[in-house]
Amino acid sequence: MQETKRLKVAALVDLPRSAQAGGHVKCWERLAAAASNSELPLDLCVYFSGRESSEKLGPGAIIRQLPPVFSTELLRFLPYVPDHTDLAPYHFRLAQELKKFDVIHTTDGFFAFARTAERISRKHGIPLVTSFHTDTPSYARIFTQHTIESLFGKGRTSRLLVEKWKLPERQGRKMTERLKRHVSLCHAVLVTRAEDRDLAGSILGKDRVHNLRLGADRNMFGPHRRDRKGVELDYAIPAGRIVVLFVGRVDIGKNIHTLVEAMENLLREGLPMHLITAGTGPAMGEVKSRLGENASVPGFVDPEELARLYASVDVLALTSEVEIRSMAGVEAMVSGCPVLVSKKSGVAALFEHSPAMITVESEIEAWQRALRTIADDPELRERMRETAIDYSRKHIASWRDIMAEDLFAVWQRAANDGSR
């Protein structure tokens, strides 16, 4: 009997790996782990940016790191960059390695890895597949304005650049056009949000756009991790407080300032609240200075501890307005944690607007009302907790299922079509 030919796939994540890395990196680390010992006829190599190394996870997966050609880390004048990436137009080392693969999968359409993949795909006839993980155009608008105001203050020069010349909007549109061009070169696209499906479908046609689900590790995350008394002791939280969890970069991109101001106002009203931020970022000091003993700002929190927090706090606050996929939302739901989520982000739609999530408008006053509602109604919190557990049991997939059913099927089809 002839042995099934193994499919060789390169997945490109133009970001550095670290314990502090965000959901984009963590997603592909977990997908690589799922592929490593699966029964699929798959050889997956996930490329990250960083000091050169190779790590064989198992028979089906390798994690490879390649040094960036021109990292944003070299741009010292920028006040803050959430995740460093490679701005070079071409990565020669990566190009040499990509030639041996059957399918190339990009996870952005903007930076050195993706631009190199375009050229290799075209030159060698290797099918290109992409997936949407980060709303880069929206982040470009946010951080362009943040950079302008950090360099020039909020005076006349900033108003000229932002309001009259509309540099943030221009940068956002430029990134959107770059993304459209990248999609047009792809055989297939995997998306999570409806608006991304519409964008990709308008370029490739609906039959070449596929769903990419959100996954969770149920051994790591779940209500079995609950330890409320231990969390109160370890984070110096008095009993009886409503504990709010924030997960992610503590910065303007995740809209942390809206949450802090809303909690400040509620604390002035006498509401007993406490914020825990799980993540690093430039606003950590501001959170602590503004909320004082009513905030715990530990910085990076490892997955084991994060699992305990999800299962033990009263609510997760997802204030970011520009999310495509929400690892925090998935992990919270699996843990039985009620969620407040920005309506503008569209994250609630990923969970079919489950009653375990309450959507919140952008204004600070709206977040105050939502937090007050959660604080004042313990029965609501319990219903949301039970609903989250029930929803996750029925609808949230494992990483192995996502690898086999969402990704491998699309890669296999791309390879078969490309070989005709």
Structural account:
Helix 12 packs across helix 15. The chain has 420 residues and is α/β, with parallel strands linked by helices. It has 2 domains: 228 residues, Glycogen Phosphorylase B (Rossmann fold, 3-Layer(aba) Sandwich), CATH 3.40.50; 173 residues, Rossmann fold, CATH 3.40.50. Helix content is 45%, strand content 18%. The radius of gyration is 22 Å and the shape is globular.
What layout of secondary structure does this protein have?
Blueprint lengths: L6 E10 L6 H14 L5 E8 L3 E6 L2 E6 L25 H7 L4 E4 L5 H13 L3 E4 L4 H17 L3 H9 L2 H18 L3 E4 L2 H11 L4 E3 L16 H7 L7 E6 L8 H13 L4 E6 L5 H8 L3 E5 L3 H10 L2 E4 L8 H9 L3 E4 L4 H4 L6 E4 L3 H13 L1 H18 L3 H20 L2
Parallel strand pairs: 1-2, 1-5, 2-4, 5-6, 6-7, 7-8, 9-10, 9-12, 10-11, 12-13, 13-14
Antiparallel strand pairs: 3-4
